[in-house]
Amino acid sequence: MEGPSSVRKGAWSKCEDDLLRACVQLYGEGKWHLVPQRAGLNRCRKSCRLRWLNYLKPNIKRGDFSEDEVDMMIRMHKLLGNRWSLIAGRLPGRTSNDVKNYWNTYMRRKVYSHKKDNNVEKQADEAKSTVQRHQVIKPIPRALTKTAPRLQGKLFNSSKVGVSEAAGAASSGSGNWWETLLENKKDNHEGNIINNTCFFGGADGELDLWDEELNPIACDFLSEGENWSDFLLDL
DNA sequence: AAGTTGCGCAACCGCCGCATT
DNA sequence: AAATGCGGCGGTTGCGCAACT
């Protein structure tokens, strides 16, 4: 039933793409609730945003994932789980939708091939459940108050102050998710293993200890000269 | 050549957190 | 403190196309 407020759904036409592109170029990204009106599109704000982010946005990389990208994706997924937006953020030109789609396909292939190789359905299920059981490290959202010392002044201006410095210093504050995570790792220290990425170690809560402990873990997705502190802060 | 199946991608949906009122 | 609106995210669905029978 088509009411007056009903919005168009389904595939986008070239004309709609042009309107949306022109609108974003004119007004910039954001204010998505205004975009349909501004662009003269009979689409909901979410649809506009998604279309822009996943398709129209410049610098979006198309085509197959390179070996490096796949490798990084696997490692990132191991660390973060299904945090597609975070993973995509580490893959320049790739969108979270791309990563998610690729991963779902990749996993399907992997499970299928495992099934085929072993010719035992049970083992394939085990492989699948291994992935599901995988305990992942998830950033714990914490409110950063405006009065937090680390948010005062220029600390987060990475051009003036090293990011790792900020991250290391931030770890000494209270209420940061990585600190909570460190608490967790202390709690789990008896077991020594939190997921197979081994988040354990000293109890002093210094992030550079993390670097030492995490560096042995395959972490090719860290840029040259970048350490875990940088990476975690980046996230 | 026609029908069927499987895959990849684009898009939708529902939920959540945050900011504002 | 509660209600509301918005942006953002992850899971899921559906369509179009290529491969296969």
Automatic annotation (TrEMBL):
Domain named HTH myb-type: residues: 1-56, 57-111
SMART domains: SANT (SM00717)
Taxonomic superkingdom: Eukaryota
The keyword DNA-binding is assigned to this record: yes
Domain Myb-like, chain residue ranges per copy: 4-56, 57-107
Molecular function terms from GO: DNA binding
Record GO cellular component, one term: nucleus
One GO BP annotation of this record: regulation of primary metabolic process
Keywords: Activator, DNA-binding, Nucleus, Repeat, Transcription, Transcription regulation
PROSITE patterns to which the protein is assigned, alphabetical: HTH_MYB, MYB_LIKE
Residues annotated as signal peptide: none
Gene3D superfamilies hit by this protein: Homeodomain-like (1.10.10.60)
Key word Membrane present: no
Cellular localization per UniProt: Nucleus
Protein name as it appears in the record: Transcription factor MYB113
Organism annotation: Glycine soja
